[in-house]
Amino acid sequence: MIDFTxxxxxxxxxxxxxxxxxxxxKYKVFEKLSNFSPILAGTIPIGIDIDGSDLDIIxxxxxxxxxxxxxxxxxxxxxxxxxxxxxxxxxxxxxxxxVINFMLEEFPIEIFGQNKPATQQNAYLHxxxxxxxxxxxxxxxxxxxxxxxxxxxxxxxxFGMLLNLENPYEDLLKF
Length: 175
Known about the structure:
By secondary structure, the chain is of the alpha+beta class. Helix content is 38%, strand content 19%. It has helices at residues 15-26, 29-32, 65-73, 122-137, 139-150, 155-163, 168-171, and strands at 39-41, 55-60, 86-92, 95-104, 107-114. It has a five-stranded mixed sheet. A hairpin with a 2-residue loop joins strand 4 (95-104) and strand 5. The protein is globular, with a radius of gyration of 16 Å. The chain starts with 14 loop residues before the first helix and ends with a helix. The mean pLDDT is 89.
């Protein structure tokens, strides 16, 4: 089983995973976010990404995160005028969240923070369920997911369509 709480597994992955590891390591993203228990989630870790897929990094944050992030962690070196960051404060399932987007080389980066452990956030739980399903269903299923994503489907609805899930965002949490 892959330990998705660390990014070392990317070194032995496909070309895009190896490249993601290089970029994240070069810019020391996980080191800079280490106080926030970062985890790379989404499609790249489980190999169902398509062109334009971003590196989704989920973090456990508190109210100081935006200030610390903006002032100290990233903006001092990573985010330049060319790859400006956008910062959104949103409410998701009655919880305050922060979403920060910017570019690092060819990768769109999205950092998503909630005031709960990253391993308890839906993005992580969905990824673990999707990984398990991909392992069980095999390569044909994986290719069908990728094709649906290329047609514009988000990941969870693509899984929902192929698995006949009524509410894929909720139902994937049950796997």
